[in-house]
From TrEMBL, chain B:
Keywords: Membrane, Transmembrane, Transmembrane helix. The chain crosses the membrane at residues 225-245, 388-410. Pfam families: DUF4178 (PF13785). It comes from the Bacteria. It comes from Sphingomonas glacialis. Residues 64-189 form the DUF4178 domain. This is DUF4178 domain-containing protein.
Length: 48, 423
């Protein structure tokens, strides 16, 4: 196995570790959190 | 290692008077004077002139007479010729070992390949040819080549302008090359040599990596791509397994409220929500208004720590619209929606809910004539903790798949360059 493959395997382990950490801490950069980042600013149907 | 026997015999070129070394006496048929380029008949004791020099002399990069070891065998360069197919050119060295016979060292300007004449014919296979239990796929279309320059001695009568028709069959690292003319057909097996092997063996400058790959050059990305696919698949499956385990959610609170359409905002509170995870908790607040039609409900949320007053806000919009037009009936919107709060610290919380209902007034309608939603709408609120954020999982999957995708692109690019027509 090449050096790049070993580095990639370690990277995958780090990603999985990070994913487990987000589950344990309930963290997500995509959550609304305390902010209203995804508030709709327009109402009504978009049907044309 | 095999020692090369003393087979060198000195001859005098009848054209220029120069001394020529006949290195494979007894095997060599034609000899091209390395001083003047005249082609001589080495089989004739008088060393008769076959053809006068027709091209300016070129000094091969590996001089004639140079010896070097390839795969543990000693070889001596006895002949050199240059071929062209009209679009590109390459060089071929004829190597000689008195115990092993002849071999070809093909130089495409970037990599070297070592070749031998086959003593048996390859067999036909479904998608190419089979030789020594390996299947070779045809590469490109047959093409004509001719000798542009020749010097040294050869076991066949070679001369500038000699033409053969070539058909190549390849597998990574090897090539079967069929050369034929009106008199004969020969098969040569070429094996791509590792970088630097020939340079070290014959003491020439190391080649760079520029230029198009050889037809039988293995992709340098292939093995890494296979590794990455295996590692990435295992990692992705592990990720999905962990996500499946961690997707459990716990409902901590639920309540039903009502909101009056087009009335001022009403505020409600769900008290006594306790979060215990010291590392933080993912909180999902779902709102549902099954009766809403042609209207929407704004659900403003604040999860307020009962001790510190720290507030975590969210917003949910539930909406649903229906109508008809020239295409028929249509509907859009979602009567169920949710807000997610990330990494909420442990503690006792109150959920403050502010509801505002609205009726949608379409073009050409007055508020009084708008139809659909009743004046009072029930809204259900459910608070759950735990679970897996889909965004996190997609981000992790993308991160895992990025390297295999890059390797795949590099591999494809290499294969495109390898199989591209020579320009």
């Amino acid at each position: 196995m090449s050096k790049s493959s070993i580095l990639y395997a370690l990277f995958c382990l780090a990603v999985i570790g990070g994913f487990v950490t987000t589950i344990r801490s309930g963290f997500s950069p995509f959550a609304q959190g305390g902010q209203r980042a995804f508030v709709h600013t327009a109402y009504g149907p978009t049907h044309k | 290692m095999t020692e090369t026997a003393a087979t060198v015999r000195a001859l005098t070129c009848p054209a220029c008077g120069g001394t020529i070394a006949l290195r494979a006496a007894g095997y060599t048929v034609s000899l091209v004077c390395e001083h003047c380029g005249t082609t001589l008949d080495a089989a004739d004791p008088e060393v008769r002139v076959i053809a006068a020099a027709s091209a300016a002399m070129t000094r091969p990069e590996i001089p004639l007479g140079t010896r070097g070891a390839l795969d543990g065998e000693q070889w001596e360069v006895v002949g050199y010729l240059e071929r062209s197919d009209g679009e590109s050119g390459w060089s071929e060295y004829l190597l000689f070992n008195p115990y092993l016979g002849y071999a070809f060292l093909l130089d495409d300007g970037r990599r070297f390949s070592l070749g031998w004449l086959l003593d048996r014919l390859p067999e036909s296979a479904v998608d190419g040819l089979q030789y020594a239990s390996e299947t070779y796929r045809r590469f490109g279309t047959p093409y004509k080549t001719w000798v542009r320059f020749v010097v040294g001695e050869f076991y066949w009568r070679v001369a500038v302008g000699e033409q053969v028709r070539v058909t190549d069959y390849v597998l990574p690292g090897k090539m079967l090359s069929c050369e034929e003319n009106d008199e004969e057909r020969t098969w040569t097996l070429l094996e791509l040599l590792d970088r630097g092997v020939v340079e070290r063996a014959f003491g020439i400058d190391k080649r760079g990596n520029a230029g198009a790959p050889a037809p039988h050059e293995p992709s340098p990305w292939h093995s890494r791509l296979i590794d990455a696919i295996i590692i990435g698949t295992v990692a992705a499956l592990t990720l999905l397994f962990i996500a499946a385990i961690g997707s459990n959610t716990h409902q901590l609170a639920a309540a039903d409220f009502t909101t009056t359409i087009d009335a001022p905002m009403t505020s409600q509170v769900i008290k006594g929500i306790t979060l215990t995870n010291p590392a933080g908790t993912a909180v999902t607040i779902a709102a549902r208004a099954d009766g809403i039609d042609n209207g929407w409900v704004d659900v403003d949320l604040s999860l307020v720590n009962a001790v510190t007053d720290q507030s975590y806000g969210g917003y949910v919009l539930v909406e649903h619209y229906t109508g008809t037009d020239s295409d028929g009936a249509w509907s859009e919107g979602d009567r169920r929606n949710r807000a997610t709060l990330s990494n909420v610290p442990p503690g006792r919380y109150d959920l403050v809910i502010e509801l505002t209902g609205h009726r949608w007034v379409g073009p050409g309608q007055s508020p009084a004539s708008a139809w659909g939603t009743a004046d009072v709408q029930p809204v259900s609120i459910v608070l759950t903790t735990g679970g897996v954020f889909a965004g996190n999982m997609l981000l992790a999957l993308l991160a895992i798949l990025l390297w295999p995708a890059i390797l795949w692109a590099l591999h494809l690019r290499f294969e495109q360059r390898r199989t591209a027509p020579v320009t």
